[in-house]
Fold:
Amino acid sequence: MKKEFLRTILLFLFATNLCACMGNSNQSGSLTSVKTAFDQKVEAILNQMTLEEKASLCSGRDNWTTKPVERLELPAVWVSDGPHGVRRAPTSDVGGFGDQLPATCYPTASALAATWDVELIYNLGQALGVECQSQNVNVLLGPGANIKRSPCGGRNFEYFSEDPVLAGEMATAYINGVQSQGVGTSLKHYVTNNQEYKRMLMSSEVDQRTMREIYLPAFERAVKQAQPWTIMACYNRVNGEYGTQHKELLTGILKNEWGFDGIVISDWKAVVDRVKGIKAGLHIEMPGSEGVNDKLIVEAVKNGSLKEEVLDNLVKEILRFVLKAKMQEKENIRFDVEKHHLLARHIAAEATTLLKNDQQLLPITREKYKNIAVIGEFAKKPRFQGNGSSEVKPTKVDVAYEEILKVAGSDYRLTYSQGYSLTEDENFSMIDQAKKDAAKADVAVVFVGLPQHYESEGYDRTHIDIPPSHNKLVKEIAEVQKNVVVVLVNGSALTIPWKEEVNTIVEAWLSGQAGGGAIADVLFGKVNPSGKIAETFAKKLEDTPAYLNFPGENRKVIFGEGIFTGYRWFEKRKIEPLFPFGHGLSYTTFEYSDLRISDSKINDTDSLTVSVRIKNSGGVAGKEVVQLYVKDKQSTLERPEKELKAFKKVNLEPGQEELVSFKLGFRDFAFFDALIDQWVVETGEFEVLIGSSSVDIREQAQLMLKGTKKYPLNVDEYTFLSELLNIPETKTLLHKHFSAYFKSQLKPGQTFDDLQIEDFILEMPLVKFTYISEGLISKEQISQLIDEANKITLTR
Ligand code: BGC
Structure:
């Protein structure tokens, strides 16, 4: 009763506060008083708190709850993993492996991203939110928006993509969906937690531009577009400083630049220096430190090394978070297990990616085949999620073989052979029987991939191959049966040495508890596959971007490939991938035409509308992911060949067409110039490319872009003479401050226009000109030149 009352009051305060924030003019008379009502409540609680209570709020009570303050009737908030299902422990003090409450296990992030379907991911978020409410979970610990830097990353199955736009859009949709149900999310692991190897210590050494263009933008998008209630700070160090105490990341960028208004929580046991963390903007340490770190916070305030005001600000934000979470709790919510299972099946089918279908073996139809040999232990022992903290206890599990039997019905004859053992990678003893079955059938459907011990949270892969027994099985079956359909079960990219020996390859991912049904739907054409891989598949590990710098050594991992992650690397290096980013086939075909851009000449501050017509030119209904890439044709800094900037999934009946449109703006053409710490758009030619994958570009348009924004020059004593002579404005300054020296270089009768300076001297930094000029230029003159040059701003 008391709880209900508190919630009603809070709900009122918060709702009216929200109205005020949304600028509801009808209520403007009472705006100021209403606007502050919620904050007043927060202030009132804060004012009653002792220093010890404030410090105590900055860490969890146990594994899954924050600390309540009973004296002030401040309740605890419950958090649970995430991301692809709710891993709610029976009680908050247990880790919750195996014994958690059953929940729907949806496909993991690699699969979710392969749908490229933001509406679907929003729906998934809603369903997850409902399941959280039904289990009294206030915050779901996900999604993970880290970029897949190396295919070896142990947690790649939990991350969306190698591309920040795709990862950011997926994360946004997920967060908006979950939060629409009054449940918070925790966007993780902020940031550059791209490997598992020594994740508690490794320092990700990332240059500023790469950080801004590759590793931050997915978080940035999600924060700006969805405002997750919480962000989870990573285990690793970022350029030397732990993510949980990185002030620039937690306060400078996240809060001040992006306007994040939630709270930052630590990854579990990721805190090193708690007081430094408070100063940096880390609100809650999880799962807590048994009071040890709380005492340090109290001591720091008492001895003056931590201002109480800094702590108060964080505590205020924690209070807001707790109250907001509690007032959105719903009672007596139950989720419809069957409906959610069907949603999981639908998502898994949408994620299923047809990598190869050369002879149109798929879909399986009665006209084509009667006898089907199903081969591979995965068909009977599904592997449907990854290892580690994301493991969900499913409500039920579909087994592919049984689902195939159901969907196939009595029209087909099926056999099953195990083919390999999921626990013994080099046991080849089952291959003969599988070959016999395959030879007798009209088509062999062979399930292979990564067994559970191959990919997991906690360690990285050292290679990207599937077990030798799986490879041998496929090769030998292909020798006796020409109709081979390989179904891949894996959470991250792998090599396929027998790609040319089989006609058909279907990527099924870690497809959640209903994945078995989904693959049956796709194999028999009940669902037309429309997934596209969100990560490049390489022919061999040595071809991948981080190969020389993964997982690092001597406590550091150098992100040496810079901005050239994923397809950006393969394209720049002209390395042919096994399957390119964005690739995925369909049982139908699509025609692209009529690409139009709103203007062929625009200014950097204008927006550009792009439209293109897509037609289903085949015989069955299908979905296509239309991908928009931008290519910068000339630039002062090195740029990728092209970059994904937008995408849209369309659903078309045979013969149906649709005009798809996109809007591009400043950031879609910009690169980050670390020298001036700004996003820059330079005047020049760009191309807008529309593709069915990153390599299958169907339409392109030329664009002339004019930079109108002015940028500082960032001149310092290490700026080269040549750089200043090339710019008219700074050339004039040089003539002013270096005139004595320049005069000394002129032959009689020559003017400054005749000045010829040797290349050797041109490529000298200003700092050297005190002695190069043999004393004709003083240190002061160089400083003056620099000061005046730095007042100049120019377009680029
Ligand atoms: C993982 C997080 C997870 C947390 C709680 C950590 O080890 O890195 O992703 O949310 O545990 O289980």
In short: The pocket of beta-D-glucopyranose is lined by residues 81-82, 141, 188, 267-268, 389 (CB under 6 Å).
